[in-house]
Amino acid sequence: MFHGLSAFPLTPMNETGINENEFVKLIERLAAAGVDSIGALGSTGNYAYLSREERIRVLQLAVGYAEGIPVMTSISSMRTADVLRLAEDAQRAGASAVLLAPVSYQALTDEEVYSLYKQVTCSLSIPLCVYDNPGTTHFHFSDELHGRIAELPNVRSIKIPGVPSEPEAAKTRVSHLRELIPSSVTIGVSNDPFAAIGLNAGCEAWYSVLGGLFPKTCMRMTRLALEGFADEANRLSKQLEPIWTLFRQFGSLRVVSAAAEMDNLISSPSLPLPLQPLNPSAREHLKSILVDIQLMESS
User: Fold this and answer.
1) Sequence-separated (6 or more) residues with CB below 8 Å from residue 57
2) pLDDT in tens, 188-236
3) In the prediction, which pLDDT does 289 show?
4) SS3 of the chain
5) What is the pLDDT of residues 243-297, one digit of tens each?
6) What's the rounded Cα separation, in Å, for the pair 206 and 291?
7) pTM of the model
8) β-strand partners of 17
9) Cα 250 to Cα 229: distance, rounded to the nearest angstrom
10) Quick check: bond before 242 cis, omega within 30?
11) What's the confidence (pLDDT) of residue 1?
12) Which residues, 6+ apart, have CB-to-CB distance to 173 below 8 Å?
């Protein structure tokens, strides 16, 4: 399940709670498209804003409506004790894998992060994906630390935040990490604007925000890159540059939630406070971008 497109859907919610019906429809949309895996409760899935009970419920819905597609879920939390409890919840709910970022209020050392993954992997019976997300955690993995963690039992993938924009530099970056980790551990690129570059550079998976909303387009780009059609994958990514620009400016969560609202896939408001939706001018710009993406999705 750590190859190809892993689509990360929104968890539609507001101050009254989670909209379960809308979430189920998003999962059914991904299942119908035949994505390689589903990443429930990622950053796009608002895991950090949900209680333990809410996270269990969302995961149960994802597994129940995924039609056999593997579901990975975040178990990230501030305390190791809570991470371990979430790992148990995930296994009982039928998750195929877990995703773990070193979330913390205090800055963590390399040894503290290694200890976290060591404790968690020792109690797991399903695979784990390491979530390298410095923009959120403010922790920066070295490739050497990735290499140590990748040797732990049940570690099967590393979700890196992006790659250099220059193709040869991207290949060098991925190759260096590959030299330090077992062949059984895949490398997946996130940060959607870097997806084509990362896949062309040797990443085996794309952990995708946009894929949670427009899976067919993102699957097409993933397949092109993995099958060696680098120019075509880059061309498709370039067509998506307008939405990548909005991602950079406003953050991918705000953009995809607004896009889902505008496509009538979810209702408004769909973000937990204090998060605010896109401003009117940005939404108007997004409206014109969505026309082109919808054509790509239906082609």
Assistant:
1) 18, 20
2) 999 999 999 999 999 999 999 999 999 999 999 999 999 999 999 999 9
3) 96
4) CCCEEEECCCCCEECCEECHHHHHHHHHHHHHHCCCEEEECCCCCCHHHCCHHHHHHHHHHHHHHCCCCCEEEECCCCCHHHHHHHHHHHHHHCCCEEEECCCCCCCCCHHHHHHHHHHHHHCCCCCEEEECCHHHHCCCCCHHHHHHHHCCCCEEEEEECCCCCCHHHHHHHHHHHHHHCCCCCEEEECCHHHHHHHHHCCCCEEEECHHHCCHHHHHHHHHHHHCCCHHHHHHHHHHCHHHHHHHHHHCHHHHHHHHHHHCCCCCCCCCCCCCCCCCHHHHHHHHHHHHHHHHHHHC
5) 999 999 999 999 999 999 999 999 999 999 999 999 999 999 999 999 999 999 9
6) 24
7) 0.95
8) 14
9) 31
10) no
11) 83
12) 163, 164, 201
Ramachandran angles phi, psi of 75, nearest 5°:
-120, 20
Residues 6+ apart with CB under 8 A from 260: 10, 12, 26, 213, 266, 270
Q: How far is residue 280's CA from residue 273's CA, in Å, rounded to a whole number?
A: 18
Q: Are strands 128-131 and 37-40 parallel, antiparallel or unpaired?
A: unpaired
What count of residues does the chain have? 299
Q: How far apart are CA 26 and CA 297, in angstroms?
A: 15
Per-residue tokens: 206? 């794309």
pLDDT tens, 154-174? 999 999 998 999 999 999 999
Q: How far apart are CA 185 and CA 189, in angstroms?
A: 13
Backbone angles phi, psi at 208, to 5 degrees: -115, 130
